[in-house]
Specification:
By secondary structure, the protein is mainly alpha-helical. The model has no long low-confidence stretch (mean pLDDT 85).
């Protein structure tokens, strides 16, 4: 590998880390903006299935951001095969959990908006679970 290609790779890697950081900052900013409403509407209310779904989606996103920032700050060359396997499995688990929650949330919205139509709920849920199923396979 020539010194030019190494320098280009390091420049690309630095830009990628800046993009991750920018996304994390926006996510944390949004989190801080809406935290007071989360406390008011969810923490003080009785725990319901939708509230539980909200918590899982909200905090899975937060853990994913933290995980991505930690992952991007550690150099891959310093990792063993076991640690790489753990990172990949954790990343995939968070992704699948987020996608499943999004599918359930979408189906619940359709169910509420269309007069408790169970068929539309089932269709929306099945279509929404295609993406997580593809990621599992």
């Amino acid at each position: 590998m020539s010194s030019t290609s190494i320098a280009e790779y390091e420049k690309t890697d630095l830009i990628e880390q800046y993009c991750y950081l920018a996304g994390a900052v926006l996510f944390c900013y949004d989190y801080c903006l809406t935290f007071d409403r989360e406390v008011e509407y969810f923490w003080k209310a009785k725990l319901s299935p939708i509230a539980l779904l909200f918590y899982v989606m909200r905090y899975t996103g937060l853990f994913t951001i933290i995980f991505v920032m930690l992952e991007s700050s550690i150099k891959w060359t310093a990792r063993s095969d076991l640690s790489c396997s753990i990172v990949v499995h954790l990343d995939l688990t968070l992704l699948i959990l987020t996608l499943c929650c999004a599918a359930m949330f979408s189906a619940a919205r359709v169910y509420a908006l269309f007069g408790h139509a169970k068929r539309l709920f089932v269709v929306t849920l099945c279509l929404g679970l295609i993406n997580p199923a593809i990621n599992i396979v």
